[in-house]
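Q: Please design a sequence for this.
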C-alpha cells in the first residue's frame, strides 16, 4: 500500500478555478485509490467540498500562506513518512527538510511573470520567491498545457527540468444537479463565467458584445457569473451599465449547472 498526501491548505478560499481543480483532483484520487492511503493537508479545517471525503486529514493551525509554506508544511512533510506529496494549488515549500517525500507540483501558468500587470503584486512577489526552488526540488512538475510547459522551460533554465515536466490537461468536474435559473432569466443567453479581474479582460468582452448587438440589430442577453476579484476598477460599473448584460455575481454550483445547461 502506497501512502500519499495532498496539500489543500489554500482551498479554504471561495471557489475559484484553482480551488475547483485542487479539490476535484483530491476527490478523484481518493475515489480511485485502489488500496492506497491518502492524507489531506488542510488549513484549520477541511475545505467544505472535502468534509465528507473518506480519508485522513491533518489540520494546520494557520491560515496565512507564508506561515504554512515556511513553518508548518516543511515540518509536517518530514513527519508524514509517505511515498509522495501532491501540491495541486501553490508550489511546494521553498525549503524542504531531509526526509520529506518526493513532491509533485502543479503550475497553471506564468502570468505573474509574463503578464505582471494582470496579477496582484503580492502574488507576483510570492510566486517569484518560491517557484524556482520548488521546481528545482520537485520530483515531477505537472502543467495544464504545452504553452505552460514551454513558458517554464523558457523562463527557468533549470538543469533537468524538461525531464520532470508532464502535461496533464484539466479534466471535467463531477456533475452537479442543476437548480432553477435566476429569476427572469430564459434559456438561450450568452454566458461568461469568471472572476472580475484584469486578466479576464471583461472590457473586451463588453466591446465585442456591443459590436454584436450593433451588427445584428440585437443579440441574446449576455449573462456574467463571477465574484469581484482584485483591481477591477470601473469594470463592475461598466458591466452593470451595458445594455443587454446581466451580472449575477457569484453563484452556487447548482445555479452554475443550470446556467451552463441553458446557455445558447
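A: Design:
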Amino acid at each position: 500500500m502506497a501512502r500519499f498526501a495532498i496539500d489543500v491548505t489554500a482551498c479554504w478560499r471561495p471557489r475559484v478555478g484553482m480551488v475547483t481543480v485542487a479539490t476535484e483532483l483530491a476527490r478523484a484520487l481518493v475515489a480511485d485509490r485502489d488500496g492506497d492511503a491518502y492524507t489531506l493537508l488542510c488549513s484549520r479545517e477541511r475545505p467544505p467540498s472535502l468534509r465528507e471525503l473518506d480519508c485522513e486529514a491533518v489540520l494546520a493551525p494557520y491560515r496565512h500562506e507564508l506561515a504554512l509554506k515556511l513553518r508548518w508544511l516543511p515540518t509536517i512533510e518530514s513527519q508524514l513518512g509517505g511515498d509522495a506529496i501532491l501540491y495541486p494549488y501553490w508550489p511546494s515549500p521553498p525549503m524542504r527538510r531531509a526526509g520529506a517525500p518526493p513532491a509533485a507540483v502543479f503550475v497553471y501558468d506564468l502570468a505573474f511573470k509574463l503578464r505582471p500587470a494582470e496579477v496582484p503584486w503580492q502574488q507576483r512577489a510570492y510566486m517569484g520567491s518560491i517557484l524556482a526552488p520548488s521546481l528545482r526540488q520537485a520530483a515531477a512538475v505537472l502543467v495544464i498545457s504545452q504553452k505552460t510547459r514551454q513558458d517554464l522551460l523558457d523562463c527557468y533554465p533549470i538543469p533537468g527540468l524538461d525531464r520532470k515536466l508532464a502535461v496533464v490537461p484539466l479534466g471535467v468536474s463531477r456533475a452537479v444537479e442543476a437548480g432553477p435559473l435566476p429569476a427572469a432569466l430564459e434559456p438561450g443567453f450568452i454566458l461568461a463565467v469568471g472572476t472580475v479581474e484584469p486578466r479576464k479582460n471583461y472590457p473586451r468582452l463588453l466591446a465585442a458584445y456591443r459590436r454584436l448587438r450593433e451588427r445584428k440589430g440585437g443579440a441574446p442577453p449576455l449573462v456574467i457569473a463571477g465574484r469581484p476579484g482584485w483591481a477591477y476598477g470601473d469594470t463592475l460599473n461598466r458591466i452593470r451599465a451595458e445594455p443587454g448584460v446581466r451580472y449575477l455575481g457569484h453563484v452556487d454550483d447548482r445555479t452554475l449547472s443550470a446556467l451552463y445547461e441553458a446557455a445558447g
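Q: Thanks. Anything notable?
A: The beta strands are 3-7, 37-43, 56-60, 84-87, 103-107, 140-143, 165-167, 190-193, 222-225, 245-249. The longest helix spans residues 121-137.
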